[in-house]
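Re: the 67-residue chain
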Amino acid sequence: MKRSKAFMLFLSVLAVVLSLALYRFYPILEAFYYNESISVSKVKLFMTEEELLNTMDEKAEYKDVQF
C-alpha cells in the first residue's frame, strides 16, 4: 500500500515536471517542427549574376546592416 502511494506520487510529480518543461520549451519545439518542413529544393543557389538580375527585374543593392 505504501509503495503504491509513493509510486503514484512519483508519477504525479513526473507529470507536473513534464508539463512545465513542455510549457517552457514549446516555442523551441514548434520551431524545430516547422524548420523540418521548410523545403529549399526550388531555390537555386548557384545562379549567374545575369540570371539573378533577370529574376529580380532590377538591380539590387546590398547594404551592411549593423545591430
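The chain has two helices and no strands.
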